[in-house]
Specification:
Layout lengths: L2 H13 L16 E5 L7 E7 L2 E12 L10 E6 L16 H17 L8 E3 L3 E13 L4 H15 L1 E5 L4 E10 L7 E8 L2 E4 L3 H4 L4 E7 L5 E7 L6 H19 L3
Parallel strand pairs: 4-6
Antiparallel strand pairs: 1-2, 2-3, 3-6, 5-6, 7-8, 9-10, 9-11, 11-12
Helix pairs in contact: 2-3
Length: about 260
Amino acid sequence: MMHRELRNHIIGLLNADIRLDGRKLTEYRKPIEVEYGVVKTAEGSARVKIGETDVIVGVKLDVGEPYPDTPDEGTIIVGAELLPLSNPEFELGPPGIQAIELARVVDRGIRESKALDFKKLCITPSEKIWMVIIDICPINDAGNLFDAASLAALAALKDTKYPAFDGEKIDYKAKTDKKLGLEKMPIAVTVIKIGSKFIVDPDIEEEKAIDARLTVSSIEDGTLCAMQKGGDFPLSIEDIDKMLDIGIEKAKELRKYL
């Protein structure tokens, strides 16, 4: 089916409050699974499946120097590698726009929510800090990598324990019982606008028909902590209000899986 025909078909279905796979408009694919500790060489890791979308996230801890403007704060570094293994449209090579945006959405949710207390990552002010390196690796992209990767990153951080560190050298083979510890649990929900309708958890076909999307990250009490807009079309204030309501409401549902 050509792009325009597919889009018209999807819009026709959405106007009848149904989707290509028979789901309701704001229904996530099932099963949703969260598995901890899947990469033994990482300090923390998790695998998340939403329907057929499958993402692994690993966390490494390293010691580095703080930024001059935040001498008593550690930091996070988020990277995403989109391999052809997960989607034939992805290409090998340096990170493309999609990989950079995926990493940015995950980074923003964690950073802006203050999920990690960066001051607790300081070892010696102005000299040494812990750097939390978060690697996102989709195994199968069947749509909605944003939400799957964000959930997997949070689960991996929850799973993370510090390696042994004597003040000079890290011994990665010796794990400690000291957990990284999360202050907040920001859940990202990407709300999609197609035509006049709003949906969550788009599959790969629905992603081709997107007019606009808004990834909404919120913490346990429903407080909004980050937003990222995508898609070619603008959103009205009314659209954004509706999308925020859906995003914050669905986050409660996803949080249960952690």
